[in-house]
Specification:
By secondary structure, the chain is an alpha/beta fold. The protein has one domain (4-234): Rossmann fold (3-Layer(aba) Sandwich). Helix content is 40%, strand content 13%. It contains 11 helices and 5 strands; from the N terminus they run E-H-E-H-H-H-E-E-H-H-H-E-H-H-H-H. It has a 5-stranded parallel sheet with strand order 2-3-1-4-5, with helices on both faces. The longest helix is centred in the last third of the chain and has 18 residues, at 217-234. The chain is globular. 39% of the residues are buried.
Length: 238
Amino acid sequence: MTTIPINLWSSPRNVSTAFMYAWANRKDCTVVDEPLYAHYLCNSEVIHPGQNEILDAQEKDGSKVVKNILLRSYSKPIAFFKQMSHHLVALDWSFLLEMKNIIFIREPERIINSYAKVRKTVTLDDIGVKKQAEIFDYLNKNKGTFVVLDSKELLSNPKSTLEKLCLKLEIPFADEMLAWKAGPRKEDGIWAKYWYENVHQSTGFQPYQERNVILSTEHSRLAKECQPYYEMVKAHAI
């Protein structure tokens, strides 16, 4: 069977896990959670919760991940890979041109505000906004297949936004993407216990709520640094 491979290149602290559950609920889709996580940890100096567990559980060589996971055939016609944009390090990016890609963005100040609740330090590389702009540039210049999706639009209008997305990806829309059962899923990565508590309580996309964000001076500077990258990519969102 020919498999349509789709990467989701998300910033952290977005609704990427809920989005993964939407795809996992499709009967025609295989889902893999953050296949490049261990590769990223081996090629960065960061320490994440459950680091040793992740390194023990996953393939650490990104080139093998590309060959044996991302570009292989699956038993279902669609393969969806939830990816963090900052995981895309120390790799030849040409595999992106053999796949369909979703660049999944969120306002930088909201990413930073949420991320700071989980980790003490927040850097430009941690939150992946600049990396998303680099992915956009690479795909655009090399005529890759990609769609830019803003999570605010997804949460504000789930059905119409997913219909547009599926049309752009040239795959059928499925109503099952709009709701799922609460609780952990078999697709969850081993790190789920550290990051997925809230989404395990969900049964669908939570309506978007506009909330005031108050950042520290340091985090405000970081948000300002990220903003041009975010706005450049957002200008092409569906």
